[in-house]
């Protein structure tokens, strides 16, 4: 355990340890938390009471989280003069599982975003966002209950990873020259330049994580979402590497959609024609073959995917995609089931996992005990699941659903519901705890 200047390690808890590639979770794990900026403290104090109540009730006091505050954002700056002290990063790495509220993006000071820095420094390559509807939540679609997907978004690569140069900069000009002179391709003068690197390593480790998740949770399918019909060597390669990994490492547990089509055709007496990895969405309809217990691995082109999560929502389960696609689809899917106020998330590496509310710090509401703690509470549910404490996780979800069905909600939901009672952040937590 590192020596910390500002972090106080609780004496009553135990560290989570990694043994032979498996995290072993004590009954009283020490879990670092970052309270967050803006609305963060309000959300934190409400959420922690809900999780603690559910854990206490589920395990009759035998399990208990030992919370350990670590510092980032404004609170860290005020305490240490740094926005993201090294000891915070070290502690999250050493204790493996942590949770955070939203963080301000400091203006100036050379930090692009504290969230992005945390993901990069801890190599948290998978952004995981489950999207499903909670009963009673207002939604713009007729059947929000059909949405139950988990998005695995690659977090470290893509044109989104920030390798870019401004129009007219020396770097942009040099690249334009190089591409013209050495590669014989024209780029218009004064173009801004962004680079889109997609590697087999980055793609495969994400798909591996998504398939392992699907196996652990009894999920039915993985969809590789890409724009490979146009960007063949980046997005198309992601799809190819995804299928390759699935077939190499999970042959007994998966069947590709193309293979399922072939089985369907073979049963009809038609010669199989498909190779795994062909664009499976070009054939339309659904194969009739029976995948048995195997997880179906399929792929979809990104634009059609946006239609299909609306029109054929329940055909999607785990969705695995590149960084930029993942950003868009996460919000589009969340909108279908009531918006970002209730959307949880996590950034996960090989072992280290940092759970977080997906919205920002909403500074205009800071300190007003007003906003919806749902996103942070549900991120905590993901954390309880990651700990293997499923009973407590389920209890929080049930109690929150019940509270929303009773129409006791914060302002954001109240303004969309008829006959609802508007309550503060802390009162919403009280109501959930009463339902626990
Ligand atoms: P924001 O903080 O997410 O707030 C935008 C709007 O979303 C709010 O005005 C509010 O809408 C609604 N909202 C957000 N959280 C809510 C909650 N818990 N309950 C109910 N409504 C909620 O986005 P922003 O204003 O663009 O960003 C503010 C700061 O947060 C920036 O410094 C940004 O960099 C940072 N940020 C941090 C994270 C992160 O830490 N993960 C993520 C995004 C942004 P109404 O006005 O309609 O009430």
Lay out the secondary structure.
Layout: E1 17-19, E2 22-24, E3 30-34, H1 40-59, E4 66-69, H2 74-80, H3 86-95, E5 97-100, H4 114-121, E6 126-132, E7 148-154, E8 164-165, H5 170-183, E9 193-194, H6 200-216, E10 221-226, H7 232-249, E11 254-256, H8 257-267, E12 295-301, H9 302-311, E13 318-321, H10 323-336, E14 344-348, E15 353-357, H11 374-387, H12 390-405, E16 408-409, H13 411-414, E17 421-422, H14 425-435
Parallel strand pairs: 3-4, 3-5, 5-15, 7-13, 10-12, 10-13, 11-12, 16-17
Antiparallel strand pairs: 1-2, 6-7, 6-14, 8-9, 14-15
Helix pairs in contact: 1-11, 1-12, 1-14, 6-7, 9-10, 11-12, 12-14
Structure description:
The protein is α/β, with parallel strands linked by helices. Helix content is about 40%, strand content about 15%. The protein is built from 14 helices and 17 strands. The protein has helices at about 40-60, 75-80, 85-95, 115-120, 170-185, 200-215, 230-250, 255-265, 300-310, 325-335, 375-385, 390-405, 410-415, 425-435; strands at about 15-20, 20-25, 30-35, 65-70, 95-100, 125-130, 150-155, 165, 195, 220-225, 255, 295-300, 320, 345-350, 355, 410, 420. It has an eleven-stranded mixed sheet, with helices on both faces. The protein is globular. Residues about 275-285 have low confidence and may be disordered. The protein binds NADP nicotinamide-adenine-dinucleotide phosphate (NAP).
């Amino acid at each position: 355990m590192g020596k910390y200047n500002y972090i106080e390690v609780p004496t009553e808890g135990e560290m989570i340890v990694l043994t032979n590639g498996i995290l072993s979770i004590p009954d009283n794990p020490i879990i670092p938390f970052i309270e967050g900026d803006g609305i963060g403290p309000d959300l934190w104090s409400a959420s922690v009471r809900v999780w603690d109540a559910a854990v206490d009730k589920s395990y009759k006091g035998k399990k208990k989280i030992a919370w350990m505050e670590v510092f980032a954002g404004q609170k860290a700056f005020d305490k240490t003069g740094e926005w993201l002290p090294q000891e915070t990063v070290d502690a999250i790495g050493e204790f493996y599982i942590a949770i955070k509220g939203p963080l301000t993006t400091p203006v100036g000071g050379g930090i692009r975003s504290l969230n992005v820095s945390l993901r990069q420094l801890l190599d948290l390559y998978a952004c995981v966002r489950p999207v499903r509807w909670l009963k009673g939540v207002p939604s713009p679609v007729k059947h929000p209950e059909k949405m139950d997907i988990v998005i695995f978004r690659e977090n470290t690569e893509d044109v989104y990873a920030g390798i870019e140069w401004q129009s007219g900069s020396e770097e942009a000009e040099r690249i334009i020259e190089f591409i013209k002179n050495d590669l014989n391709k024209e780029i218009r003068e004064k173009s801004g330049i962004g680079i889109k690197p997609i590697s087999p390593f980055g793609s495969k480790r994400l798909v591996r994580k998504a398939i392992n998740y699907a196996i652990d949770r009894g999920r039915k399918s993985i969809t590789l979402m890409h724009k490979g019909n146009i960007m063949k060597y980046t997005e198309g390669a992601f799809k190819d590497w995804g299928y390759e990994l699935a077939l190499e490492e999970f042959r007994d547990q998966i069947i590709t959609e193309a293979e399922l089509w072939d089985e369907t055709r073979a049963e009809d007496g038609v010669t199989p024609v498909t190779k795994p990895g062909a664009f499976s969405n070009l054939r339309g309809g659904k194969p009739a073959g029976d995948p048995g217990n195997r997880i179906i691995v399929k792929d979809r082109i990104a634009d059609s995917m946006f239609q299909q999560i609306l029109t054929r929502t329940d055909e999607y389960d785990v969705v695995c995609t590149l960084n930029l696609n993942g950003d868009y689809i996460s919000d589009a899917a969340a909108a279908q089931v009531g918006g970002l106020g209730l959307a949880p998330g996590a950034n996960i590496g090989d072992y280290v996992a940092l759970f977080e509310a997906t919205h920002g710090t909403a500074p205009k509401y800071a300190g007003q005990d007003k906003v919806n703690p749902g996103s942070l509470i549900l991120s905590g549910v993901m954390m309880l699941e990651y700990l293997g404490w499923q009973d407590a996780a389920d209890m929080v979800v049930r109690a929150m659903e019940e509270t929303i069905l009773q129409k006791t909600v914060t302002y954001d939901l109240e303004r969309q519901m008829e006959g609802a009672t508007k309550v503060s952040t802390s009162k919403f937590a009280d109501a959930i705890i009463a339902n626990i």
